[in-house]
Amino acid sequence: MDFFAKCRCSAGVICPFCLRLAAIAVITVFGALIAWKPKKTIDIQIALYRPFNWRLEPISWEKEIRNTRLMGLTLVVLGVASFLYVLLY
């Protein structure tokens, strides 16, 4: 498998193949960060809703942290699977 055979970037134009790989890399990194620091992720979400005068607070912090970590791990798994799919097919 030759990675560069699929890349068609030229003259400063990024090809769809490289855009897909970049999007998959970003999603995988965000998933890893969410899984690694779920409490920080929830705090950021709360801070983003505050300017809209919305109060966001989980009923159960334990469940919310567990579910956020699971969501991050799911993103990592889907990111790796997508990466392999794009490279192999």
Question: What can you tell me about this protein's structure?
Answer:
The mean pLDDT is 91. The chain contains four helices and no strands. Helices cover 73% and strands 0% of the residues. It has helices at residues 3-6, 16-36, 38-49, 61-88. The protein is mostly helical. The protein has a domain at 27-88.
Instruction: Give the distance, in angstroms, between the N- and C-terminal Cα atoms.
Output: 10 Å
Q: Specify the helix fraction band.
A: over 70%
Determine the strand fraction and express it as a percent band. under 5%
Catalogue the unreliable spans: none
Please write the string of helix (H) and strand (E) elements. Answer: HHHH
Structural class label: mainly alpha
Count of DSSP H/I helices: 4
Mean pLDDT level: 91
Could you describe the largest sheet, including whether it forms a barrel? Answer: none
The geometry reads as: elongated
Number of strands: 0
Computed CA radius of gyration, to the nearest angstrom:
18 Å
Which secondary structure elements does this structure contain, and how are they paired or packed?
Blueprint: H1 3-6, H2 16-36, H3 38-49, H4 61-88
Helix pairs in contact: 2-4, 3-4
